[in-house]
Amino acid sequence: MAGIEAARDDRGSITDRIQAASDPNGHEHIPFNQSRAATPVILLTASIMAIGIYLPFSPLGAHVGMVPLPSTYFPWLVGILLSYCPAHGGR
To answer: pTM score, two decimals?
Structure first.
């Protein structure tokens, strides 16, 4: 047990070992927190969201008992997503 503690002290915590990276403009950012997802990840996420929104309106959705969301849901969704972007630096 003492060996594990000594090794942990020598290397530091995981948080200490993650170093801030720089973007092409030289601004430092925290990995995972202030990074941007790769384009394929963004496109896949958007595709899955579109399928999820479309599914209740489709014949398959009706067949499995899904009910379309009310039209008042979508302005709220857009408003929440748009307000989220500036709160997190537009990233």
So the answer is: 0.53
Strand-pair partners of 28: 22
Instruction: Encode pLDDT of 29-68 as tens digits.
Output: 566 556 677 889 889 988 998 999 999 999 999 999 999 9
Residue 32 to residue 46: CA distance in whole angstroms: 20
Q: Write down the residue that tokens 């973007």 correspond to.
A: 23
Q: Smallest Cα–Cα separation from 36: which of 90, 86, 91? A: 91
DSSP per residue over 43-84, as a string?
HHHHHHHHHHHHGGGSHHHHHTT--PPPTTHHHHHHHHHHHH
Name, in order, each residue with C-beta under 8 angstroms of 23's C-beta and a sequence gap of 6 or more.
29
